[in-house]
Amino acid sequence: MNSLTGFTTMARIEVVIDGEHVPAVRGLLLSAGAKGYTAIQGVSGFGHSGAHEGRLLYNDRNSLSMLISVVPMEHAESIVAGIRQLLDDHHGVVLVSETLVSRADYF
Amino acid sequence: MLLFAHERTERADDGSGIRGGAEVIDILLIVAAVFAPLFAVVTVIAVRPAGLAAGRLVTLGCAVASLATFAIIVVSARRPDGLVGYSDGWPLHLDRASSLLLAAVTTTGVVVGSFSRRSIDLDPRGRRFFALLGALVTGGSLVVVHGSWVALLAGWIGSTWALVALLGHRSELPATKRAQRTIARALMVGDGALVLAIAVVVAIGGADPLTDVATVAASLGSSAVFRIPAADLVAVLLVVAGASRSALVPWHRWLAATLAAPTPVSALVHAGFVSGAGLLLIRFHSLVLNSAVAVYAAFFLAVLTILIAVGAGSARVDVKGKLAWSTVAQMGFMVVQCSVGALSSAVLHIIGHGLYKASMFLGAGDVISAGLRSTRRATPLPVWSAAARATLAIAIATLTLGLGLWVLPPHLSAAGVVLVAVFAWSTVVHGLWGWLSRGALKSSLALLVGLAGALVAVFAYLGGLRFMERFLAPSFGDVPLGDVALGPGVAVTTLVVTIGAVALVVGGVMFAPGSVAQRLRDKISILFARTAHPSVSKVVARRVVRGKSALTGSEHAGSEHAVPEYASPIATEAHGRPDVSRSQIRGDISRATSIIAPTWPLTSFVAVNPLGGLEQLGFDGATKVARQHLRARTHLTLDEYRADHAQALTTADDLAWAIETCFVDVCSTPDIIVGGVDVSAADLIRLDLLHGPEGEEAQEPLTALERAHGTASELGKLIDATVCHSVSQFMTNTSGSGASDTSFHTQWRTDATRVTNLRLHLGAQALRWLDDLGEDPADVIIAALDVVGVNNRDRVSEMRGHLSRVQGWAGLAKWRTDWAHPNESRAMLAPIDIVAARCALEAACMLGRPTASAVLTPGPGEDALIEQRVEAILAALPMRASADERLAIRHVVRLVDSQARNGCWLSAQERRVERELLSRLDSGDSGDSGGSGDSGALTTARAPAAQLAFCIDVRSEGLRRHLEATGQYDTLGFAGFFGVAMSVQRLGWAHAEARCPVLVTPSVKASEKPSGTPDSLADVKRMFARDRVTSGATAVHSAAKYGAGAPFAMTEAAGWFAGPVAAARTLLPSRLTPRKRPATTMLLDGSDHEGLDNEQRVFTAEAVLRTMGLTDGFAPLVVLCGHASPTVNNPHATSLDCGACAGASGGDSARTVASLINDPRVRSGLRERGIDVPDGTHVVAGLHDTGSDHVEILDAHLIPILHRESIAALVTDLEVAGRRQSADRALLLPGRAASVRSRGADWAQVRPEWGLARNTSFIIGPRSTSAGADLEGRAFLHTYDAGADPDGRVLETIMTAPLVVAHWISAQYYFSTVDPDKFGAGDKLLHNIVGDTGVIQGEHGDLRVGLPFQSTHCGDRRHHQPVRLLAVIEAPLERIERIIWDNPILKTLVGGSWIRIAGRSHPNEPWSIRSAKGTWSGEPKATNTIPVLETS
């Protein structure tokens, strides 16, 4: 994958967390150097805390949300450090993986 | 005495002294005018009536006095010398000046008395309050009237005493006691000076107690006291007395301290009491004006006072604080007037200013709604450039004032004329600037109107002054015009102009735009911050200045250790890489903030669970954390539960059930034998619950400073005050200024070491340390925690400690970061900023300084408490216990946690509520209210005349019940935004506002459009014109109020209009009828990117109807009825509006959804989707005013003629139902039942309605479940038809949104009731609005959260019953269970016992109760599960 010409390896951080904690994660991402993120509301699934329904009709705060951000590798550690603190008290999942981007300065 | 006799003889020679037959009337009038309030006070003390009756008596006394005073003015006006009451041996008399001043005092007494009567209502201290109020009015009257010097002294000192005592109305508040001390100290100086002055006069003049000391004092001649001319000495003493009373330098700080008193007291103080200097200087003018030293002293004190007060006022961001400092400046101005001999002008000022300030204080609560109106209003572009506007304003002001002075020259000294000219000119300039800047009208018209307005204002002001001069000529005939002791007019003129110039500069800085001006504003703010906020422990500051420790003796106790010194504020090694550490700090901050709830601004007050962040811990876990980390009460006290038990709010059955449920394990232990009798563990617990002592949780220190200095350290309070001050300044001054990218931390770093008295605590090292702090708040926290020695493991707890000390502002910060709209104009404030600021200040105070470990005062240990509980149980047992038996009892008691007892009582109360409600639902009819029983269901066969959908709000329940009993109506309940998450922009608004629950983001926008008819368009034009003029007038007032030097003349003039308006609002409260708005329609936008195409509209309409359960069987009329509560002078007004519409009126949502469903294209689409809304059905919007129970039909012009008749019948029935509902509510509201429908329009009402108080339950099911049952307005009612929702989607929507919001409301009422100080907003009468954000209580402090005390209590009695929400659901139990398990929020709330659930699958089944663990059991019945042991 690294052999792809013109691509840069960066860290892809995916966080699945209760909607009410999205502002905190968003703040962590931005304060730690992320230039942006993608948020998906109403994520459904099944896990340790049971089933999660998708989007609720009149409640954007109490369904699961996913935030995805791509950051330089050197920023990933600090972002994850903050999120791990947060996950001490709350349910959630954080995934970090390598990803290739064509415009590194975009992130 | 001889001199006095001579004076009277001279008057008699003029034919105006002894008046024969008239003197009896004079005396009667004076007795009534002066002593009627005192008579009322004596009656109150003797008869000891209830508070309300005492209020009536004192108000009546003031009214009699006021009427008598006006009669005296008439009599005085008819006599050439204007004298009333000059009769041999009669000690009190008046001239025209004193008559006018007396009228102001007594009339203000009437207004304030009447206002207080409604605002104090059932306060148990009401009688004391009104007695003191009457005493204060009497004291003020005695000071004003001429005559006996004993009366003067009694009035002067008596009013001091009455005021200080009135300040102690809420004596339980620490701030009140501090304020009392501050005020007493300042006023006693003045009292002493007056006593001394009169003593000199009496000693030298030999006056007897009945002589008028002013007359004698004026004739002291060349007498001397210790070689000081007696006349000068007395004059200076009088100036000191007046300066102290009028808050002149150096006593200028006491007036702001009066904000700790209820609003009516503040009004009375500012309206009259504080004018003492003016009253003395006017009364003793013949003496003071002839003493150069006294006049110079008065003048310079006054000038200095003006300068300081203007600066201090500019540093305040709270409404009452600004008013208080404005009054101090006005008092300075009044004394300047007196010292230059402008006495008529001073009388005009005293009365005008008094009326104006009384009006401003009484109506201070209107600020929020006025701010909301202002924010909504689009800002028109100014018609000219700033230079052109300034030129025009100056030119017009100069021309009109010049013309006015030429036509109506004041009969004053040269200095007096300059004074009038300078300040009147400034007022006109600023007023015109405000008018032209607002761009209210087209340029030429605006100029003409401005010119005309300026002419009218100038001539009215000068005419009023001339009238006053002529009227008062007999009183001030001896005042020299060109030869005032102050000396040459040039010097005076120079000083006056200097004041004006300084004021102009200050004012210019205050209002000028741009960053330079902003920096200057900041400098001024910092300069005067300490003056404006002296509360931050002067005593402590003094100690530090003297080189002593700020700590008290007890705080020194314990072992000392030195906090290490740090060279760099950022210690990276201990924490790894700085960016990782920062992120960890931010993560910890997120965890720590779970301790606080978001606080919405008052412009859109939304109910929240104060412990919402801890919900995952369950109710017991969260309340335990709250007790430890917030030091809050989370339950009623045992005594309160026992009192409720005595009043049958719980029965023995409920208690027995609760004991068995809460203490299952303990109850299973074997019985013990006591005195030969078997006693079960449950019996012992019951006795403990009924008789045991309260267990108090030990208050652990929360922060490093608390651990070192104790939880009540003065230093900690000083830091709290400093942080609160900084945040309030930042939020008020930066919001809306376009500087939202500036964070609080950035600004705080600039001001941290300069702003307050805290600087006195910090050595050079600490100041350097603060200056070196990093730009990232996380770095600051890292550095500060290193200094105070907090390790990573304890970091979250430490942060919680900091947040809990400034809970209100931290809550606002949480709202700002987590909930505010991205475009929110309020300044950026984050919880991390607050923690950084407070953490750093603590660290700076402890840096490099030996500190002590506080010796905590241990409470009674757990063992001691258990022993007390055992003793209480033994005392209640009818038999004696041996030592072994005692040990056995002790063993049982030890198993029962002392705090868990409160939880057990709570469960017992909830059990009672549960039984009562389910029983009522089963019976279907519990009173004479009638009801349609099962026929109320929408699914019934009969055709209703109309179907009305109300909001689920508990206030709709009664109206629905009465309406169903009135005619053939079906009602249903649905969240008041009617299912469309929209933002709304009404005609004339600058922005759209959300009209949906805060849980959901608006997805569509609705706009108000003119209906298109010529009449409608003309009405819209007129409405815009009116709005522009109103906006311009508001701008004129605002500019003149805050402009440089402008307020002085403005208040003199404006008070004469504001006073009568205030009197009318108080004495004749009636429902204000808002001006009729033009005919318009509210439509979902469809043309822009946010708009909907027809398919989306159809989808939206379908979702609304299906969720509402309204898919067939449509009546000819379907009414969507939103609700609102239009109240005045109520900072928390939005808390009474529709929560489902984000704390706003539900009318807009109703109008929009009605127009959506009436759209033929939408109906066509609905038919294709299986919902056939017949052509003969029309959807109408309505608005339920929950304050008056009146339902208004909105958009009546859109109703087809076909339906007009049925609408008329519906309106009649709604009115009948509304009146019945009002009659029900009148039983619960204090005061007169007849006034229940107009309380909202009464600006004196602190309780316009009860809101959602007493709410207990949320019923989800068909109307047949609750129809006919009188639920007393305590249940949220949401319509749900399980048969029409096979997949449970609708029920899931209801349970995950409306039920969650209802739980927030329930929790907010619960916690505001059990701990009104920590979770509630405190006493409304002490509220002081900060910006448009929230309220503080008194002069300063933390932002208050939650509901005001008056929303949950009536007098000292609880009105709201604090129990957790009970959800009653008629739906298959397995469906309910599945929904709970599928949604984490419901698992948390139900599993954590925040919400209790009762359910049944079918109407003819018994109710089942769900336990927190998920098991369902039968409906609770009133059975004796535990035999009750007879006790002694």
Report on this model:
- Chain A is an alpha+beta fold.
- In chain A, 23% of the residues lie in helices and 38% in strands.
- Chain A has two helices and six strands.
- Chain A is globular, with a radius of gyration of 15 Å.
- Chain B is α/β, with parallel strands linked by helices and 1432 residues long.
- Chain B is built from 54 helices and 27 strands.
- A six-stranded mixed beta sheet of chain B has the order 19-18-24-25-26-27, sandwiched between helices.
- In chain B, a hairpin with a 2-residue loop joins strand 3 and strand 4 (228-229).
- The N and C termini of chain B lie far apart (75 Å).
Observed structural traits:
A: 107 residues; alpha+beta; four-stranded antiparallel β-sheet; 2 helices; 23% helix; B: 1432 residues; alpha/beta; six-stranded mixed β-sheet; 54 helices; 27 strands; globular; disordered N terminus; disordered C terminus
Classification by helices and strands of chain A = alpha+beta
Q: Assess the beta-strand content of chain B as a share of residues.
A: 5-15%
Strand tally of chain A is 6
The main sheet of chain B comes to: 6 strands, mixed
Tell me how many strands of chain B there are: 27
- The quaternary structure here is heterodimer
Continuous helix count of chain A = 2
Q: Helix amount of chain B, in percent? A: 55-70%
- Sheet with the most strands: spatial strand order of chain B: 19-18-24-25-26-27
Largest interface: A-B, 37 and 42 residues
Low-confidence stretches of chain A: none
Which spans of chain B of ≥5 residues are poorly predicted at pLDDT below 50?
1-20, 482-488, 534-576, 925-940, 1422-1432
Gap between N and C termini of chain A: 19 Å
- Rg of chain A, Cα atoms, Å: 15 Å
Backbone structural class of chain B: alpha/beta
- Helical content band of chain A: 10-25%
Give the overall average pLDDT of chain B.
85
How do the strands line up in the largest sheet of chain A?
2-5-1-6
What Rg of chain B do the Cα atoms give? 35 Å
Inertia-based shape of chain A: globular
Number of helices of chain B: 54
